[in-house]
Amino acid sequence: MPRPGSTTQRGYGTGHQAERARWQARLDRGETTPCHSHHCLHPGQPIDPDPSQWDLGHNADRTAWTGPEHIDCNRSAGGRNGAMVANAKRTMTIREW
Ligand SMILES: [Zn+2]
Known about the structure:
By secondary structure, the protein is α+β, with helices and mostly antiparallel strands. It has three helices and two strands.
């Protein structure tokens, strides 16, 4: 199977954190990026550089990261992100459904 530039296939771990840090550094420099969610709830709204306002998305089979997603867009994608993300979001002030 193709492995597009991914350094890890284990889902979350150091690869996720490093990739997230890379994006955060770019956002901190003032770069903007659109939401990478396929189900974006805020079309046209760039990602907020506040680290609590975005999540790093990944493709459907978790072989590669896609990029920042709005926190609620990432969440709205259902179970594809697993329990860790769901737990992280419990501490944030977002809608529950
Ligand atoms: Zn979005």
